[in-house]
Amino acid sequence: MASSSLHLPLSLLCYLAVVSRVVADDPVPFAAKWSDLSFGPDGPWPAVEVTLGIDQTIALYPGREFQTFLLTSDYCDGNDTCPGSKAHLYNKAQAQVDSTGSAAQIQWAPGPDYMVGLKMAGENAESWIDNIDLGGLTVPNASLALLSKSYTAYPDGTWYPLSVGCLGVGAPKTVNQTFTITDGPAINASLIPGWLHAQNEIPSNSFAMHIGSVNPTMPGSLYFGGYDQNRIIGDIITETDDYTKAISLSDISIRVVDGSSPWAFESKSGLLAANNASISSGGIKVSVDGCSPYLTLPKSTCDAIAEHLPVKYNKNLGLYIWQEDDPKYSQIVSSASTLDFTFLAGSNTQHVNISVPFRHLNLTLTEPLVDNDQQYFPCYTGSSGGYTLGRAFLQDAFVGANWDSKTWWLAQAPGPNIPSAEVIALTEDDTEVKASTNDWKESWSGSVGVPPMSFPMGSLAQFSFTRCKQPIRQKKQLLTVSFKWKALTPEDVAGSQTVSSPNATNSATSSPSSPSSSSSSSGLSTGAAAGIGIGVGVAALVAIAALAFFFFPSP
Ligand SMILES: *[C@@H]1O[C@H](CO)[C@@H](O)[C@H](O)[C@H]1NC(C)=O
Ligand SMILES: *[C@@H]1O[C@H](CO)[C@@H](O)[C@H](O)[C@H]1NC(C)=O
Ligand SMILES: *[C@@H]1O[C@H](CO)[C@@H](O)[C@H](O)[C@H]1NC(C)=O
Ligand SMILES: *[C@@H]1O[C@H](CO)[C@@H](O)[C@H](O)[C@H]1NC(C)=O
Ligand SMILES: *[C@@H]1O[C@H](CO)[C@@H](O)[C@H](O)[C@H]1NC(C)=O
Ligand SMILES: *[C@@H]1O[C@H](CO)[C@@H](O)[C@H](O)[C@H]1NC(C)=O
Ligand SMILES: *[C@@H]1O[C@H](CO)[C@@H](O)[C@H](O)[C@H]1NC(C)=O
Ligand SMILES: *[C@@H]1O[C@H](CO)[C@@H](O)[C@H](O)[C@H]1NC(C)=O
């Protein structure tokens, strides 16, 4: 209710902002728009929202190099309950570009394996071009790949349908992909940041993202031509060329950051190479991929981590199911403890840690992967050759690339207590991004005051910000204590001190419902919190709304 009454003044502000931009005309970083919904039978995950061709709004996970991969309306064959329908499917018949002509004649057919770390099966994709509207800026003739008969293949051999495509975020030194066609001249298909930079809309051919998370609610951040400095904390890993190129992971550890330990230790390292003599002290090579869901690692590594968790291995899916009736489950997934990934950076002498709180590793499997929803731990053993850190990891990592300077970065991202965006432009020559001075632990534990002007997540803040491109600053997100982790007390962890191992019979069947420590997830209801947040800002905006009514007849 409140939000609809605020749209009018915001569109006025947007209008003014756009006008002032036309006058100034300096290239500025562009923020992609995030969907209000969440997606995936292995998430839930955040996704960005773009409009293709003639008015086809589609949600996509960001993170593909080169082409944007779309699921077509053929994918579900008119089946409304097909998992791909929620994010919306692409209909070739509603292309804005040349749907019968040259686009259909591009000879290059990319394989279905557009993500690393999860095996794909089925038919090749079809190359295509169409316009992509990012919410204020349109990229004509964007390079696309259409998936109509491709599936994910799990360890037991079952193929499952995809639910969301993947947005192209550019590629090293590339503005256009040039495709030959059967008849006539080659076709140029644009990559998003390359085209935007070539048109002088953004300061460089670059992207930067932190996907955020659905639980706890943390809005995503995706910029072209710049980055939000507040999404980077601590040391930065700097690499060259492709961002999905494999880099060195030297260890994985479990660590208690605050409070009592739910384990018999405060930290446990050496988990990457445990029980596997063929993994040397140098570790393994892993790719980072926003199109891929899991932490795809050697089975020996997943087992070594799982040994300390109340989980059960699901052989068919190659994933680990949390035993929700084990009291250790809710202790661990709400606690101030993390899975730490230690990378060997640049010079191969510098170690950089990226911590993923267990709070982020309590994910949900839904249909079609399972019949009834199950909480799972996203270590995945069905590697198709490449070990991969996907969205489960990217909830806590900043990743970005300057394609002009062929440089990319990986760093720790903050927890849910995030200050307003501090957007910094990347120029063509930049080979560095700068970290904020924010404290990572605070971002997960800090007490959060209600900011002076705040909006409910995902609606107005993003609306105003993305439609208006740069000029209007992102409003501080509304946060409540419920998003924090919980530093466990000695009482919380009293009782069963050891975690039942994966193949032990479950001794905790006597406690049917999960223990009360999970009640920290209540807190202020969104409605109540939104009321507090909007209260202050509303008076001012209502005044503008009243003004706007005089100037613009309502539609
Ligand atoms: C539609 O898709 C769902 C999920 O993939 C499947 O269970 C169902 O059988 C399909 N229905 C038809 C009519 O194909
Ligand atoms: C898009 O591609 C078509 C076909 O190649 C071409 O005719 C058209 O000029 C292109 N549009 C732009 C804006 O580059
Ligand atoms: C990219 O392709 C478009 C047509 O789709 C063309 O207008 C533009 O000049 C090309 N840019 C480069 C750098 O090749
Ligand atoms: C495609 O881009 C190249 C430069 O990369 C340019 O020479 C050519 O004219 C473009 N073709 C079209 C059809 O725009
Ligand atoms: C041990 O590590 C090697 C090298 O990564 C891998 O190929 C193998 O599958 C691992 N063994 C197990 C049991 O995971
Ligand atoms: C685990 O995640 C589910 C789904 O988001 C949530 O309902 C549940 O409260 C979480 N469990 C704990 C103990 O936080
Ligand atoms: C990385 O994490 C491990 C395990 O928590 C710790 O032993 C190590 O000191 C950390 N390294 C750095 C550079 O912070
Ligand atoms: C599983 O059970 C076997 C035999 O009971 C035991 O040797 C092994 O250590 C157990 N595995 C784990 C991870 O506890």
Describe the structure.
The protein is 18% helix and 28% strand. By secondary structure, the chain is of the alpha+beta class. Among the domains are: 32-201, Acid Proteases (Cathepsin D, subunit A, domain 1), CATH 2.40.70; 232-409, Cathepsin D, subunit A, domain 1. Strands 17, 18, 19, 20, 23, 24, 27 and 28 form an 8-stranded mixed beta sheet that branches. Strands 1-14-13-29-30-16 form a 6-stranded antiparallel beta sheet. Strand 29 (397-402) and strand 30 form a beta hairpin. The relative contact order is 0.16. Residues 141, 175-176, 188, 190, 198 line the site of one 2-acetamido-2-deoxy-beta-D-glucopyranose. It comes from Xylaria hypoxylon. InterPro entries: PEPTIDASE_A1 (IPR033121), Peptidase_aspartic_dom_sf (IPR021109). Residues 46-411 form the Peptidase A1 domain.
In brief:
The protein has 555 residues and is α+β, with helices and mostly antiparallel strands. The protein has 10 helices and 33 strands.
Question: What labels describe this entry?
Answer:
555 residues; alpha+beta; Cathepsin D, subunit A, domain 1; eight-stranded mixed β-sheet; six-stranded antiparallel β-sheet; 10 helices; 33 strands; disordered N terminus; binds 2-acetamido-2-deoxy-beta-D-glucopyranose
